[in-house]
Write a structure and sequence with these properties.
It contains 5 helices and 14 strands. The chain is of the alpha+beta class. It starts with a helix and ends in an 8-residue tail after the last strand.
């Protein structure tokens, strides 16, 4: 098992290096991105113009979480168009601002793009989140380390949403966690997220690609999140060997929760459909 992980990690490393020099079209997502583009670590965007936009309480909502592998798969456009229908939130990792991606972004959603790195051809890479309700505050945070300590960083996008008839807010975190590093770098990245989360007292969801390809990563992740009352929504998995993508949450109505992995050919990750609702009695 140890040698298999080494082989897999080496293969992925070469694949990642190749991605830096891939000739990708340099097109901008600016026309599709309504909430703006965060381009530096710690960038905060306060949307003061948001009026009467809030997440309803006790109402079923739907989220699609997916690492889209930079939209390399030729089936990606069709699959994406089919599986995102009716989604209140679309949370993507390995997003790129190419025309093939930006042209598919649902105009009914408010999109935000957090840039992790830019290729030599000027194509931005990072995480993207679309939502029917516009967040009132956003924060982009770059990982404390880089891949292999010198390669590209990862990025997390924190978004805060008003909740109807409540003084609390909903926090949604779109994460892509460091992959090719030792345990201490992984721990530092997770603690960077919890250092921000600890200040939030309301309901929250932390979703995305956690790169938990070893049990010690997953064990630390569960223990760290449990400290803040955050738990994982389990679902039947169809991956072969690696379980990388997860849904973590707090303050949601338990009876409303449903998650499933969609077996589709559009990326090297299977997307996750997550249905949820906020608790009727927040703070209890």
């Amino acid at each position: 098992m140890k040698y298999l992980l080494v082989i897999i990690t080496t293969f992925l490393a070469f694949q990642a290096f190749a991605e830096l020099t891939t000739n990708l079209a340099s097109n901008s997502c600016d026309r599709a991105i309504n909430s703006g583009v965060a381009t530096s670590s710690g960038t905060v965007s306060n949307n003061d113009q948001v009026v009467n936009q809030a997440i309803p309480v006790g109402v079923p909502l739907s989220m699609l979480v997916w690492n889209i592998q930079k939209a390399k798969n030729q089936n990606w456009p069709q699959v994406y168009s089919e599986i995102t229908v009716g989604s209140d939130f679309v949370v993507l990792q390995e997003g790129v601002d190419t025309e093939s991606v930006c042209g598919l972004l649902d105009s009914d959603l408010n999109w935000s793009f957090a840039n992790s790195w830019t290729s030599r051809k000027g194509v931005r890479n990072g995480v993207m989140t679309g939502s029917k309700v516009k967040p009132y505050k956003e924060l982009m945070v770059e990982s404390p380390k880089r891949e292999f300590n010198f390669f590209t960083p990862k990025v997390s996008l924190f978004q805060y949403y008003n909740i109807e008839d409540s003084n609390e807010s909903l926090l949604l975190v779109n994460v892509h966690i460091l992959n090719f590093n030792l345990i201490n770098a992984f721990k530092d990245h997770i603690r960077q997220i919890t250092d921000i989360v600890r200040e939030h007292k309301g309901p929250l969801m932390i979703v995305g690609d956690f790169n938990t390809w070893h049990r010690w990563k997953k064990q630390f992740l569960d223990e760290e999140f449990a400290t803040f009352g955050i738990q994982e929504k389990k679902f039947k998995r169809y991956e072969w060997l690696l379980e990388l993508d997860h849904i973590y949450y707090r303050g949601l109505e338990e009876s409303s929760l449903f998650a499933e992995q969609l077996v589709v050919n559009g990326s090297d990750h299977f997307p996750i459909r997550f249905n949820f609702a906020l608790k009727l009695n927040l703070g209890q």
